[in-house]
């Protein structure tokens, strides 16, 4: 006696968190049932495998019907088909848009295109995230990207409004969108030590300090793009390394300020010019898309790795960056103090975040 | 016409009926009646239809100008006036319907190129259509239209739904329909219900499902003063709820109303071959909507005639008869309800001179025969006496002996009279006597009254005097095929679905259906009388159709209602009126009639006095029939509660547990499940084989119920519902009920197994093993359901299930000494326990299947009544659900045993699955568990379950148990009043002034009666409700060796708990409140109440019918995906309508039909769902407490604030 048709519909839609998790992870009904069995639900509830199968199928159907709505979360709140308590709706959305950081790390800076989607098999193998789940997450990234691509104003807030995500998750999506938009290189071997969280933090700093929204909320350009005029202006900062006098004065100001305060003072004195050149040039290159891609590579290669080989402590780096940023205020003839500080605020934040093993 | 089976001369109308009767195979079997209309019989009703059709034509609504068969010439014009005609005499009540289309959202993309839609809306009512502008290129159009105004009359308002169609404008081709919304504007027609319908409605398409939403505002202006308004059927309120709605009180309960309308099913019309499935589905939806409206309006008219203003317990059903048509029928209980806030509103009306004038002839009716059912005439004795010989003789000569009970001759014309136009404005009673004269029937003793039936299942305390038991009747009919091309042309015009036209061509059709039901009702009525009862409560009707065979079923609970109770109320003017207005109910209930039923009763002089003295906790259990002349063999004992009256040992009813009932422990859901194979056959042969199977099925269903009841150590069933479903090659029976232990009834004996070959050692061992298992189960169940009635100290038998042999010996000796009961005992001994004799594999199966029922997991209880006996501390969390399963019975050579097992497993697994799904709600109770079985195809069984899970507070239950009885009793009484909302005047009569002190009564009773010898209290297990009076019974008894022994004697003091659920008693547990939801939450429940909340306003009835079809079944997730989505859509549409009415809940929700058909080969499926319920506004009790006014008094005023309550 087989059940051809077997449905259960509640006036309030039942959401089983465990089954939702299994569904999100891309398990088939059979796999989900097997996993639930391993979880010992049978013993706890004294029920049968058939009941478990029926229950799992019901939930899966519900989720499949809900998925369409989850693609536009505000619709989930407005729709009349499923009566779901708000806290459950929030949970559904949050879980649906939650992602595996390992996967996000892999995809950071990649173009969210069909080509990338085809490579998900490898990504899945590398990260251990199920392929179906990978695709869903990829589609989420892409959907969010498409939705906010053209929108003005702060990226994270736009995402939060359109997808009703919790603020932290919205910020992460903003980072993903930011990376996808600017196509930063993140896959190089020397960048492997950086986690998604590191990059997300960097993206936030960059957007927070550099984007137009940071200065004028009604800015014309989306937050995902760094403002062209700003990047153009950054070329002006080259004077700090190009002008020999300025560079020497800058060095003496910083070194004297840090004397006795950092353990790596000698190394600082030896490397100051190289460091300063690296820090200033990173910004100077950003007008070319090709060079933008290398932003993080440059930071790591030219700042972090030398410091690390000189055994700078994070505290040393922090002190150095503080003084390095502040010093030009006292440099005669340097007129770009505001631009400099805006630039260095983001760079410092990124470096400090990235400076770990 | 050529296809009609016969075209007899209408002059033989009378004889047509007479002839029909002997040909019916009628096997009355304690409340059962099966009549197969065999081939020759079918023309029987048909000629009657021909001749008598016109006057009785049900669905001939307004004018019926096209009556072609003026057979019964005299009455033909009368019939024409039947429905609307009567009202046509009155002035029409015009009204203005105003509709505004505000906006749409989430529309589907209709233009692939732009990914957008150019939407506009057509608003149609009757023949008038308005259109909005096209809102270009948007999926969220903002039409913000003007007010579209329809000037219409009230009949249209009641019949027609407002039809809103959303379309996509297309410059070059036809506009594409996106979907539709049907809005029933009936709720706007009651003065107290909703004033505006405003909100987002899902746009529904029968092929694509919900496609976006539309925001609509609807208002109705009625151009008349309130008085005239009240005269119109428009003012009649409808309630699905089968009790007096919460914020009303019943001034008068008038009684039974019924109506049916018939039409051809659009799905089977010729035009269906050339139109799209969508057009077909929409035609059907619209037709059924129209038919429902018409039906409701007609019932409304009947109610107005009875001077009522409401229908409670309104149950409307569709019979999809396929090619022979579509029947929409409804039953209900007419009432005069009074809103609790304005008690005086009704009084002036009922004291109006015009009404009094009409009353007078009634009260002083010169023809007492019409009223009294006094047994003084020999004829009547015949009618009411059920001596065994009499009953046995009955079935031998088939149902013509029935004439004395149910004169079929009168039947036809009786029902004709109801619709008879000239009489329409007259009093019903006058109508009936007029008809009697016309019919010239000399047998006027037979009651020509309305059926004294009540679709209510809950009554105010004291209202039910006695409950006799379940009465039911079934009848197997062959559906007449109608091919009448003549009417097809009419379908073309715009109001084609207005059924009148069609029906005038097929007038025999409604007539036949009418007569069928009338016959069954008559049967029910006579069964009730046989039980000494004058009324039937908890009455319901159903059908099961397979191809051209139809089983009609009706069942209810025979009861004696309290005439004194009612008469005492007549201090109030309108109650007197009530008595005269409802002959069917009250005249039988008059003291005269009452005494007639108890002529031999020792204390007949003070009979009524005794009734009133008996404590309410047990009064309803006392037998209504005459113990010396019992209608069936039953064993009686003195009531274990009051010790004054006799009670049966087992009580079966279709009603909810009366609130005042004293129950021990908790209740539980009990189901009997049964399959019987049947040969595939055609027409008459098929009907005959079905009717031959029915008695066996009824018997086995009953046996199963009884066994399972005993297995749980309980002694009464409430809410019993037996469905017999007919399929191509099998019959299925499913009975559901809630078992309880009534303190007033004796403790049930155990179940004893007896082997056929007692000498065989291993066999003996096996038997004793089985016996042990059964005994263990009983003991376990008693623990589980907390059934521990206190035992009397002198109780000899200590253990609940004594060792069988010892017990039987003991009891036998006792039984010998008992002489009081033995005389009455006609069949099976005075033994206590059921003896299951395992004489064949069948019986073995039975025993096994008994033990397969698994109790619900801990933390779960289930029942099919509204209230779970023994649980009284509900918390507000509820979850209503519908589950549907279709299973294939895969056996190649199925036998009854394997089928039974399959069916049993299917039901058990379904229940298990429900428990698992709802495990997060534990501790909770599944209430109102309603199973519906259908056999859509060969080997396919469909089960649909709708129920509600309600959480309760476990800890508080303990406290409640410890609470002093007195207090809880008090609480119960106040709660009852509140809950039932019956007039205080009624409750202040002597009966109810002291009803809630059973504790004292019981103690007295116990002390004064403990001396009674056990023998006198001898009990027996028996079919108190189904006991048989026919041969088949005896044969079956022989077959099954059903033996009955006296039960172990136990008395129960009722101190334990009388714990009626009542709102006031509920503890509110705060539920996480949802704050930011954009969609207001609408609760749905099959119950008439919401735990922890107070219903403050009824907004109108919800009665919706949807069809969904797909031609891409696989793509939609197969059958499960398709139906899952559809049910969710139905819920969504119900909620949207309720929310638009300003409501926040649907109570008494029921899914009446779920017809699913699939054709996997074609990748197609279709489903029809019909749901109904009452839209209400409720307010959480916690919120009420914050309000300064007292809840009960203030309730109606809080409605506005309640509209936006969300949870």
UniProtKB/TrEMBL annotation, chain A:
<protein>
    <submittedName>
        <fullName>Acidic fibroblast growth factor intracellular-binding protein-like</fullName>
    </submittedName>
</protein>
<dbReference type="InterPro" id="IPR008614">
    <property type="entry name" value="FIBP"/>
</dbReference>
<dbReference type="GO" id="GO:0017134">
    <property type="term" value="F:fibroblast growth factor binding"/>
</dbReference>
<dbReference type="Pfam" id="PF05427">
    <property type="entry name" value="FIBP"/>
</dbReference>
<dbReference type="GO" id="GO:0005634">
    <property type="term" value="C:nucleus"/>
</dbReference>
<dbReference type="GO" id="GO:0070527">
    <property type="term" value="P:platelet aggregation"/>
</dbReference>
């Amino acid at each position: 006696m087989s059940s051809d048709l077997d449905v259960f519909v509640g006036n309030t839609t039942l959401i089983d968190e465990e089954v939702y998790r299994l569904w999100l992870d891309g398990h088939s009904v059979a796999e989900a049932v097997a996993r639930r069995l391993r979880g010992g639900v049978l013993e706890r509830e004294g029920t049968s495998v058939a009941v478990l199968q029926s229950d799992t199928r019901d939930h899966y159907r519900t989720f499949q019907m809900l998925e369409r709505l989850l693609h536009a979360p505000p619709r989930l709140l407005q729709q009349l088909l499923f009566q779901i308590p708000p806290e459950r709706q929030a949970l559904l959305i949050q879980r649906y848009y939650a992602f595996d950081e390992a996967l996000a790390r892999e995809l950071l800076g990649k173009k969210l295109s069909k080509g990338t989607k085809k490579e998900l098999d490898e990504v899945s193998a590398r990260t251990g995230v199920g392929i179906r789940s990978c695709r869903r997450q990829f589609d989420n990234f892409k959907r969010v990207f498409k939705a906010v691509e053209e929108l003005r104003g702060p990226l994270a807030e736009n995402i939060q409004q359109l997808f009703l995500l919790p603020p932290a998750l919205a910020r992460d999506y903003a980072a993903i969108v930011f990376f996808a938009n600017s196509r930063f290189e993140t896959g190089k071997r020397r960048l492997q030590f950086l986690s998604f969280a590191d990059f997300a933090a960097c993206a936030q700093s960059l957007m927070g300090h550099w984007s137009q929204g940071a200065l004028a909320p009604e800015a014309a350009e989306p937050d995902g793009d760094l403002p062209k005029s700003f990047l153009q202006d950054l070329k002006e900062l080259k004077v700090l390394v190009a002008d020999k006098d300025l560079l020497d004065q800058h060095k003496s100001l910083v070194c004297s300020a840090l004397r006795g305060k950092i353990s790596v003072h000698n190394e600082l004195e030896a490397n100051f010019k190289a460091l300063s050149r690296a820090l200033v040039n990173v910004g100077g290159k950003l007008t070319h898309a090709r060079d933008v891609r290398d932003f993080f590579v440059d930071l790591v290669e030219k700042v972090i790795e030398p410091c690390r080989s000189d055994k700078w402590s994070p505290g040393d780096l922090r002190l150095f960056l503080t003084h390095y940023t502040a010093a030009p205020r006292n440099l005669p003839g340097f007129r770009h103090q505001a631009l400099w500080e805006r630039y260095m605020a983001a760079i410092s934040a990124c470096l400090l975040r990235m400076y770990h093993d | 016409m050529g296809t009609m089976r016969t075209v007899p001369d209408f002059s033989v109308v009378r004889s047509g009926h007479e002839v029909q009767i002997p040909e019916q195979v009628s096997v009355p079997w304690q409340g059962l009646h099966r009549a197969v209309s065999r081939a020759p019989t079918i023309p029987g009703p048909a000629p009657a239809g021909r001749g008598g059709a016109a006057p009785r034509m049900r669905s001939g609504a307004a004018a019926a100008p096209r009556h072609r068969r003026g057979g019964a010439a005299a009455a033909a014009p009368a019939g024409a006036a039947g429905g609307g005609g009567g009202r046509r005499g009155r002035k029409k009540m015009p009204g203005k319907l105003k509709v505004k289309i505000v906006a749409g959202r989430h529309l589907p993309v209709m233009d692939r190129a732009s990914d957008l839609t150019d939407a506009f809306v057509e608003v149609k009512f009757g023949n008038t259509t308005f259109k909005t502008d096209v809102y270009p290129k948007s999926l969220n159009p903002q039409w913000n239209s003007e007010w579209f105004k329809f000037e219409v009359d009230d009949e249209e308002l009641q019949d027609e739904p407002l039809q809103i169609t959303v379309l996509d404008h297309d410059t070059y081709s036809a506009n594409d329909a996106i979907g539709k919304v049907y809005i029933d504007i009936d709720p706007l027609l009651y003065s107290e219900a909703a004033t505006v319908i405003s909100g987002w409605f899902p746009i529904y398409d029968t092929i694509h499902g919900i496609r976006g939403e539309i925001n609509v505002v609807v208002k109705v202006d009625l151009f008349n003063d309130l008085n005239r308004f009240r005269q119109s059927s428009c003012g009649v309120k409808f309630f699905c709820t089968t009790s007096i709605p919460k914020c009303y009180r019943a001034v008068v309960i008038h009684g039974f109303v019924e109506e049916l309308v018939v039409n051809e099913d659009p799905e089977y019309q010729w035009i269906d071959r050339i139109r799209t499935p969508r057009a077909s589905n929409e035609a059907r939806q619209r037709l059924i909507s129209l038919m429902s409206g018409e039906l409701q309006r007609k019932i409304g008219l009947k109610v107005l005639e009875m001077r009522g203003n409401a229908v409670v317990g309104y149950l409307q059903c569709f019979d999809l008869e396929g090619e022979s048509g579509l029947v929409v029928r409804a039953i209900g209980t007419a009432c005069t309800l009074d809103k609790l806030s304005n008690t005086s509103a009704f009084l002036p009306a009922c004291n109006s001179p015009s009404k009094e004038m009409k009353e007078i002839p009634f009260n002083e009716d010169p023809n007492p025969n019409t009223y009294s059912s006094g047994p003084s005439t020999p004829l009547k004795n015949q009618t009411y006496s059920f001596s065994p010989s009499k009953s046995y003789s009955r079935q031998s000569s088939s149902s013509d002996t029935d004439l004395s009970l149910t004169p079929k001759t009168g039947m036809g014309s009786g029902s004709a009279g109801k619709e008879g136009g000239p009489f329409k404005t007259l009093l019903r009673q006058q109508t009936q006597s007029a008809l009697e004269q016309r019919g010239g029937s000399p047998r006027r003793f037979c009651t020509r009254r309305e059926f004294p039936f009540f679709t209510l299942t809950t009554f105010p305390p004291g209202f039910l005097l006695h409950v006799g038991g379940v009465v039911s009747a079934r009848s197997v009919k062959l559906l007449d095929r109608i091919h009448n091309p003549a009417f097809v042309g009419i379908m073309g015009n715009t109001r084609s679905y207005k059924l009148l036209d069609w029906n005038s061509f097929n007038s025999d059709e409604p007539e036949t259906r009418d007569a069928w039901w009338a016959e069954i009702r008559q049967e029910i009525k006579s069964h009730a009388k046989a039980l000494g009862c004058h009324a039937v409560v908890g009455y319901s009707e159903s059908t099961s159709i397979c191809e051209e065979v139809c089983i009609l079923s009706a069942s209810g609970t025979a009861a004696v209602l309290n005439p004194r109770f009612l008469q005492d109320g007549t201090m109030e003017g309108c109650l007197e009126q009530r008595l005269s207005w409802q002959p069917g109910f009250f005249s039988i209930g008059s003291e005269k009639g009452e005494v007639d039923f108890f002529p031999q009763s020792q204390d007949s002089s003070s009979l009524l006095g005794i009734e009133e003295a008996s404590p309410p906790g047990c009064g309803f259990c006392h037998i209504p029939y005459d113990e010396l002349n019992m209608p069936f063999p039953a064993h009686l004992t003195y009531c274990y509660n009051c010790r004054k009256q006799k009670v049966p040992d087992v009580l079966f009813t279709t009603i909810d547990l009366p609130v005042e009932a004293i129950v021990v422990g908790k209740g539980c859901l009990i189901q009997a499940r049964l399959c019987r194979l049947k040969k595939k056959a055609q027409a008459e042969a098929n009907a005959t084989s079905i009717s031959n199977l029915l008695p066996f099925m009824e018997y086995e269903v009953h046996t199963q119920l009884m066994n399972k009841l005993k297995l749980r150590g309980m002694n009464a069933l409430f809410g019993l519902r037996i469905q017999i479903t007919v399929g191509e090659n099998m019959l299925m029976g499913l009975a559901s009920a809630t078992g309880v232990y009534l303190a007033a009834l004796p403790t049930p004996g155990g179940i004893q197994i007896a082997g056929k070959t007692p000498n065989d050692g291993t066999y003996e061992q096996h038997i004793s093993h089985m016996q042990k298992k059964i005994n263990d189960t009983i003991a376990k169940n008693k623990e589980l359901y907390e059934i521990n009635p206190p035992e009397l100290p002198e109780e000899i038998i200590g253990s609940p299930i004594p060792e069988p042999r010892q017990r039987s010996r003991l009891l036998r000796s006792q039984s010998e000494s008992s002489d009081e009961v033995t005389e009455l005992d006609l069949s099976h001994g005075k033994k206590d326990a059921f003896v299951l004799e395992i004489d064949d594999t069948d019986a073995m199966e039975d025993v096994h299947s008994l033990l397969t029922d698994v109790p619900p997991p801990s933390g779960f209880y289930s029942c099919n009544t509204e209230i779970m006996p023994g649980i009284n501390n509900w918390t507000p969390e509820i979850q209503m659900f519908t589950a549907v399963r279709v299973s294939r019975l895969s056996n190649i050579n199925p036998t009854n045993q394997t089928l039974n097992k399959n069916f049993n497993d299917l039901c058990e697994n379904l229940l298990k699955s429900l428990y698992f799904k709802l495990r997060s709600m534990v501790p909770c109770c599944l209430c109102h568990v309603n199973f519906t079985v259908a056999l859509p195809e060969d080997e396919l069984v469909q089960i649909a379950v709708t129920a509600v899970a309600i959480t309760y507070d476990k800890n508080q239950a303990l406290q409640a148990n410890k609470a002093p009885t007195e207090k809880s009793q008090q609480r119960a009484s106040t709660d009852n009043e509140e809950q039932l909302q019956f007039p205080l005047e009624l409750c202040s009569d002597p009966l109810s002034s002291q009803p809630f002190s059973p504790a004292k009564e019981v103690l007295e009773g116990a002390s004064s009666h403990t001396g009674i010898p056990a023998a006198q209290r001898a009990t027996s297990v028996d079919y108190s409700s189904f006991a048989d009076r026919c041969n088949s019974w005896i044969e079956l008894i022989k077959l099954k060796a059903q033996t009955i022994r006296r039960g172990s004697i136990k008395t129960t003091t009722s101190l334990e708990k009388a714990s009626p659920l009542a709102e006031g008693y509920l503890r509110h547990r705060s539920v996480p409140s949802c704050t930011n939801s954009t969609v207001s939450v609408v609760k749905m429940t099959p119950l008439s109440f919401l735990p922890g909340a107070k219903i403050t306003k009824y907004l109108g009835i919800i009665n919706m019918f949807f069809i969904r079809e797909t031609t891409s079944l696989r793509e939609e997730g197969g059958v499960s995906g398709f139906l899952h989505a559809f049910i969710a859509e139905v819920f969504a549409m119900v909620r949207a309508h309720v929310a638009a009415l300003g409501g926040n809940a649907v109570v008494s929700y029921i899914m009446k039909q779920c017809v699913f058909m699939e054709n996997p080969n074609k990748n197609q499926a279709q489903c029809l769902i019909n749901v109904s319920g009452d839209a209400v506004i409720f307010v959480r009790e916690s919120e009420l407490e914050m309000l300064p006014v007292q809840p009960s008094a203030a309730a109606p005023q809080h409605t506005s604030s309640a509209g936006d309550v969300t949870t």
